[in-house]
């Protein structure tokens, strides 16, 4: 009896343990299944996010630019055409201009270097710098104009919709539309150059164009590649205050993506009328990465190099490189991506060093001027 009772008691004492074990096993299985479901959902969400955010695209279609061949040995413009179109009886340098802009002190060394490259290329037109006086210090303005640009203060043209959706660094870029108002100064046509360009050859032939607006098609290193839309870093413009007024009146209500600011607007405004120029007039560094053979074989004909990225005179997020560090910065950038941009960076660096030497007396005076930005309004005739 004792043994039975002991056995029975022992069995009873075991029952809860068995029940607890079964319950615990069930809970573990449930937890395991829950974890599997959560992980599966997370993986699917990640997959769908990356699929729609970065869809796998087919390779670019074969075209003459992605698969460039060096077949044509002839120049863009023949000498007899140049001599005729630019003859003194047809070409008055005072009626034409090369214009750039300055909205921040950080680009002042680039403007000075651009000016020197224009002088070396013997470009015959007037050199004009449009700048925002409330954003540019006297010292930076002095540096920017040391190599020949004539400064003209202008009023800022604000972006539409308070700039909502525009790249933060492009918020002042609609001021570029002021270019069309230079007819008020007797300028019939102009070539606009971004400050991050460098002139390698004379391009006076552009001033003989009969068209109202011309630009070079843009190029991207991603799947967009070579596109129909143009890059607004180099523009040929026949000036007209009437066109300016009409463009400005339509900015607020035009339907265009604001991310690329004035470039986007100009592409929509002149979409069907723009004359597309050869890539020699806007040598976007993106071309070198996308079509190295094309870049190499068009070097001799290239008039203008555009340092879209990288820029040898900026650091961080569009921050100014101190004057005394610029040459060091050029050498640093020349090593990026296993030296992909070395030749182009040294072009800019050599031009900068030349400019710094030739205009050293003027530059010395510039560094003695105030580096703070005055609060002022533009009073130039271009703002009327």
Mean pLDDT: 88
Q: How much of the polypeptide forms β-strand, as a percent range?
A: 5-15%
Portion of residues within helices? 25-40%
Instruction: Write out the strand line-up for the largest beta sheet, numbering strands in chain order.
Output: 3-2-1-4-7-6-8
User: How many whole angstroms does the radius of gyration measure?
Assistant: 31 Å
- By secondary-structure content and strand pairing, the structural class works out as alpha/beta
Order of helices and strands: HHEHEHEEEEEHHEEHHEEEHHHH
Number of helices: 12
By CATH, the architecture of the largest domain is named Alpha-Beta Complex
Q: Any idea of the CATH class of the largest domain?
A: Alpha Beta
Question: Remind me, CATH topology of the largest domain?
Answer: Spore Coat Polysaccharide Biosynthesis Protein SpsA, Chain A
Gap between N and C termini: 118 Å
Number of E-type strands: 12
Keywords for this entry:
alpha/beta, Spore Coat Polysaccharide Biosynthesis Protein SpsA, Chain A, 2 domains, 12 helices, disordered N terminus, disordered C terminus
Short description:
With 384 residues, the chain is of the alpha/beta class. Helices cover 38% and strands 15% of the residues. It has 2 domains: 8-56; 79-383, Spore Coat Polysaccharide Biosynthesis Protein SpsA, Chain A, CATH 3.90.550.
Written overview of the protein:
The chain has 384 residues and is of the alpha/beta class. The chain has two domains: 8-56; 79-383, Spore Coat Polysaccharide Biosynthesis Protein SpsA, Chain A (Alpha-Beta Complex), CATH 3.90.550. Helix content is 38%, strand content 15%. It is built from twelve helices and twelve strands. It has helices spanning 2-53, 79-85, 108-120, 138-144, 241-250, 261-269, 285-290, 292-297, 326-333, 336-339, 342-358, 360-366; strands at 96-102, 126-131, 150-153, 189-193, 197-199, 213-219, 226-238, 275-276, 283-284, 304-306, 314-315, 319-320. The strands form three sheets. The chain has a seven-stranded mixed β-sheet with strand order 3-2-1-4-7-6-8. A three-stranded mixed β-sheet has the order 5-10-9. It has a two-stranded antiparallel ribbon with strand order 11-12. It is globular.
């Amino acid at each position: 009896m004792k043994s039975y009772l002991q056995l029975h008691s022992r069995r009873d004492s075991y029952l809860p343990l068995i029940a607890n074990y079964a319950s615990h096993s069930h809970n573990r299985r449930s937890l395991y299944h829950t974890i599997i479901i959560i992980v599966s959902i997370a993986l699917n969400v990640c997959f769908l996010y990356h699929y729609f955010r970065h869809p796998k695209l087919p390779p670019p279609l074969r075209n003459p630019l992605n698969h460039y061949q060096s077949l044509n040995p002839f120049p863009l413009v023949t000498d007899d055409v140049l001599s005729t179109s630019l003859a003194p009886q047809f070409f008055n340098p005072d009626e034409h201009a090369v214009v750039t802009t300055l909205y921040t002190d950080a680009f002042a060394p680039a403007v000075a270097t651009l000016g020197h490259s224009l002088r070396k290329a013997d470009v015959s037109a007037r050199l004009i710098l449009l700048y925002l006086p409330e954003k540019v210090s006297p010292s930076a303005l002095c540096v920017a104009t040391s190599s020949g640009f004539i400064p003209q203060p202008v009023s800022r043209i604000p972006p539409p919709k308070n700039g909502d959706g525009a790249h933060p660094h492009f918020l002042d870029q609609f001021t570029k539309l002021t270019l069309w108002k230079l007819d008020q100064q007797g300028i019939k046509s102009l070539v606009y150059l971004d400050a991050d360009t460098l002139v390698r050859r004379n391009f006076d032939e552009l001033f003989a164009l009969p068209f109202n607006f011309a630009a070079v098609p843009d190029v991207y290193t991603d799947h967009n590649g070579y596109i129909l839309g143009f890059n607004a870093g180099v523009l040929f413009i026949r000036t007209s205050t009437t066109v300016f007024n009409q463009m400005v009146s339509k900015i607020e209500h035009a339907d265009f993506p604001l991310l690329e600011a004035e470039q986007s607007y100009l592409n929509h405004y002149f979409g069907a009328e723009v004359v597309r120029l050869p890539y020699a007039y806007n040598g976007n560094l993106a071309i070198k990465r996308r079509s190295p053979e094309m870049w190499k074989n068009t070097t001799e004909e290239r008039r203008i190099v555009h340092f879209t990225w990288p820029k040898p005179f900026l650091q961080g997020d569009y921050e100014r490189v101190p004057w005394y560090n610029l040459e060091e910065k050029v050498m640093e950038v020349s090593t990026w991506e296993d030296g992909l941009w070395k030749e182009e960076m040294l072009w800019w660096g050599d031009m900068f060093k030349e400019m710094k030497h030739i205009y050293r007396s003027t530059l010395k005076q510039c560094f003695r001027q105030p580096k703070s930005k005055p609060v002022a309004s533009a009073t130039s005739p271009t703002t009327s």
